[in-house]
Design a protein that fits this description.
This protein is α/β, with parallel strands linked by helices and 466 residues long. The chain is built from ten helices and 24 strands. It has one domain: Purple Acid Phosphatase, chain A, domain 2 (4-Layer Sandwich), CATH 3.60.21. Strands 2, 5, 8, 9, 18, 19, 20, 21, 23 and 24 form a ten-stranded mixed β-sheet that branches. It is globular.
Amino acid sequence: MPSRLLQPLGAAAAIVALVAGASALKGAARLQPCASTEVTASIGAAAADQPGPDRLTIVLAGDAGFNPKGEAVAPEGFRDKDKKLMSFPETLSGIAKDVDGDLAFVNLETVVTDRNDLVPDSKGQTSPYNFKSHPLALKALIDAGFNLFSLANNHSMDYGANGAEETLYHMAVAAAERAIAYAGIGTNFEEATRPGCLELGDVTFGFGATGIVTGQRDEHRAGENKPGQAEYRHRPDFELIVNRLAGLPVDYRILSIHYGLEGRVVPDKRQLDEWRGYAARDRGIDLIVGHHPHVAQGVELAGGSLIFYGLGNFIHPGTTEMTRFGVCRDYGLMAKVHLARIDGDWRIAAIEAIPLTKTHMRPERFSPQEGVRRIYALNHLGAQLSDGATAEGVRFTPRADGTGLYCTPDAAALGGKQGALCASWRPAPAIPKKLGRQLAAACADKPFYGAGDKQRAPSPFGGIRR
């Protein structure tokens, strides 16, 4: 079947231009793609000329997909293990109220298509995990408030080049209707390494995405005339993506990285060297968002940069119910990053941490008591990140609703919602001794897979490494 990616893009771009023009006539600052199509993976439109806000919130969520392994896609939703049908909006209903930021990020770890005739890619495995989700699942995410999408991960090529082109086609159609940015795959290498860009009044956001390729397979790596993604573990690819993002003339830069050993809650040397070292310290990326290990890792302030080493799962019926992995590995992390513009620079005012359960079907908050236990687990991990120089692990103060809050020293003086959020904030208390002993064991640094027996060790995908 011939590609349907290229032909509709001109019409889609025209629609975006009309939408942007209409918003400009209304005279209000509105989120939209950046004016220059040379720096955005979304489709270009006219630049906004209204002033933007001086306070912003960015919502972050981890890995997302909307169908079990190998299942057919359907517009009405997907079926759970008991064959009960669940619609896409219903799947998101437990956390919809928390997707209330100016920007909202999610890693889209699935091919997006309405076709059931795509041939799955074996990825060199005897029992591969191939995921595809209906375009109405993407619409449900956008309707919920998500507008930043990473496409760079080890499931972007689950249905080969045809699947990647399907995803790009449906992202372009979505971008014709709403202001979204996406990055990470492309019809060629240039597109696959190209950052996205969004504007909100006079504020511009750059967005880049990179991730691992299953087995580092060359056929999945984009080429001059070949669809695919760049390979995070190929250092020149990583540096190119970071440098293209760092070179954008924007106000704030966000980098998504899909990498890590599944089940590991402690960042490895590559993460520290490349995320903290190269991306944050050397190239000044403001916000680095990690995912892939299926579990949450610690949060770090590295100079002026904020790093989430791992957000864990968000929503994915292809994964297992995580409770069997214990208090340090059984939750996904949703976060809200509150920014304030001070003297022309965007600075972190506060960070909220929201532990999520039931990420295999319908994510929702834990009960307050159980949520607090996960906040302490996150603090246990954060305490291991400080390097005695510029890197400092973030510790969240548990709140009565089971979430956590970190505020910078001057946040309470900002006034408005951010000032009110931090008005009574106090630094995080010490972890209770009994829980501390439990966390020391539960958060031991180990992957899901045993060193020499990947098949028998438990994993979120039934014991088989992807």
